[in-house]
Amino acid sequence: QKETVSHLRPELFDFHGVSMAHYFTDNCDNVDNFQAKPDDILIATYPKAGTTWVSHLLDLLYFGKSSPKRGVSLPIYERVPFLEFSVPALCPTGVEMSDKMTTSPRLIKTHLPVQFVPKSFWEQKCRIVYVARNAKDNVVSYFHFDRMNSLMPEPGDWPNYLQRFQEGKLVFGSWYDHVKGWWEKKQVYPKLLYLHYEDLAEDIDRELDRVCSFLGVCPTEEERRQVKEGVKFDAMKKNSMANYSTMNVMDFKISPFIRKGKVGDWKNHFTVYQNEQFDKEYQKKMMNTTLKFRTEI
Ligand code: A3P
């Protein structure tokens, strides 16, 4: 039985122009100096965009056949280390875990905005899978996550949280800057696959094809079937090695990590007025990009 730790709430602070919490910056020198290997695969997201979904998918795709028990015996945060994570009281840092990994390829997760990614990933020309989720569902999911995770700053109430999302005052900064920054990078860095949560939810077969062709892997029909089974919402929700239930900084009584997994849950949270205000602000902030999102499917 895990004991929930609930006294760690950090403050938000400005880190080179991006709002951060110290658990994700304390190790920044080692993160900056991280040595990537050419076959590393970086999974990059703004928090709550489907990181765990795609991490579990890639892990099953690469290792499900050779180690069929891996996905149900090793927690996702050990299979796919979180690069900038630094809570020594809890576990080795993301850099230490990544350095120790013996698998090939290494799958590594980050929430860093593109300008903070260690230069070694670019020098080694690593493949990167970025996952983006529409702003409305993303902020709802982040709100519930910040409520249940004591490593995150106090979320406060929903109206205030929504306001801070628009101002970029959440950990890892502005959603707008994040998704647009990575989108711009994609235009100049061909080894970046830009996925959308909504597309994964709509047609996992199609998205799995895109992932496989990007990574150059050719699973058999049976392997594909197993990957698709493993990454279904209900399967991941039940799988303690994918659902974070072994992490004692999270209080599932407040909200589970794998919560609803829906496109459009924002409709249960936004008032009509909040939605109108949000749309106005959104239009302004997304005027200068070709990046598009769907808030329903
Ligand atoms: P909700 O809070 O909307 O349910 P991340 O892994 O980036 O932290 O993202 C977590 C979000 O992805 C949560 O969203 C979670 O439920 C959702 N998610 C995780 N696994 C999923 C799956 N297999 N299918 C659909 N959504 C999934």
Automatic annotation (TrEMBL):
Classification via SUPFAM superfamilies: P-loop containing nucleoside triphosphate hydrolases
Entry protein name: Sulfotransferase
Keywords, comma-separated and alphabetical: Catecholamine metabolism, Cytoplasm, Transferase
Keyword Transferase: yes
Compartments, as annotated in UniProt: Cytoplasm
Gene Ontology CC: cytoplasm
The keyword Plastid appears for this protein: no
InterPro entries, per the entry: P-loop_NTPase (IPR027417), Sulfotransferase_dom (IPR000863)
Biological process, per Gene Ontology: catecholamine metabolic process; xenobiotic metabolic process
Segments forming domain Sulfotransferase: 38-289
Primary location recorded for the protein, binned into one broad class: cytoplasm
Membrane-spanning residues: none
Molecular-function GO term, any one: sulfotransferase activity
Residues spanning the signal sequence: none
EC id: 2.8.2.-
